[in-house]
Amino acid sequence: MNIVMVQPHGILRRVAPAALAIVPVSLLFGVLAARADWSPLEVLAIGLLGFSGSGQFALLPLAESGAGFATMLLVTASINSRYLPIAYASATRLPTPAGQRVCLAHMLGDEAYAMERPHDSGASLWAIRTSLFVAWVLAGLLGALLGHLVPAAWLGREVNLGYPASVVLMYLSAAQLRARLWLQVRGRGRGRGRGRGRVLAASALCAGLSLLLIHLLGPVYFWIPGIGLASLILWRAGL
After folding, report:
1. What domain range is 77 assigned to?
2. Overall pTM > 0.85
3. Tally of CB atoms within 10 A around 126
4. Is the confidence at residue 3, as pLDDT, over 50?
């Protein structure tokens, strides 16, 4: 395999927009966690050990409602099951030493997967994933500190701080999906028209099945079967 050597400043320029985009999301998580009486140390620990944006947000209402550990583990595992396909697809990029593979695998996220390229070197993977990981963890810690400093009266219970975080996450997901689908279509050369139709049909089928599963199983338990079916459809479509 040919490895493309990329200068450090080139990697940082590539990853900086994504790192800046996740900062407000992690800040909001820290503020929400502080309002739920999480300590800054607990927010730091879940950022370091969990590193799952949507999974962390899902834990907040479960913890506040007194849900058991098994319930929280099941919900988090269901939400984080979306990482299985991207972890499988990016496994060949990881370095050989087991310790490095474990660390890089732990720091894999949606943004890192979107930023990486098939021929990136091991040093490039370290730069991309570490930058995003550190940005998320430190922003969450800062949000927790700010949440404890801001008077509760300034942020009434009727203020839904999770809403802007959801909007940002939705925008990032849509931007990544559009970029990847466009690259897939462009790569088909003369068959671009047929490629575009297949991409759109597969995407529409995935979206339709996900909505059906949400209706049948609810917004929490649809994740695992939804991820499995979407992965199968996209694989069969050659995406």
Report:
1. 8-162
2. no
3. 17
4. no
Half-sphere exposure of 196 (CA within 13 A, CB side): 6
Please give the structure tokens belonging to residue 113.
């997967």
Each as own residue / partner, the long-range contacts of residues 90-95 (CB below 8 Å, 24 or more positions apart, any chain) are: 90/116, 93/118, 93/120, 93/125, 94/122, 94/125, 95/122, 95/125
pLDDT tens sequence across 40-67: 999 999 889 887 777 787 788 777 777 7
Number of residues assigned to the chain: 239
In one letter, which amino acid is 159?
V
> 151 exposed, middle or buried (CB, 10 Å; 0-12, 13-18, 19+)?
exposed
188 domain residue, yes or no: no
Assess if residue 221 is contained within a domain.
no
> Is residue 197, in this structure, part of any structural domain at all?
no
- Residue 2 counted as domain residue: no
**Domains: count for the chain:** 1
Specify whether the CB–CB gap between 85 and 112 falls below 8 A.
Answer: no
Question: How big is the chain by its Cα radius of gyration, in Å?
Answer: 19
CA distance 228 to 177: 17
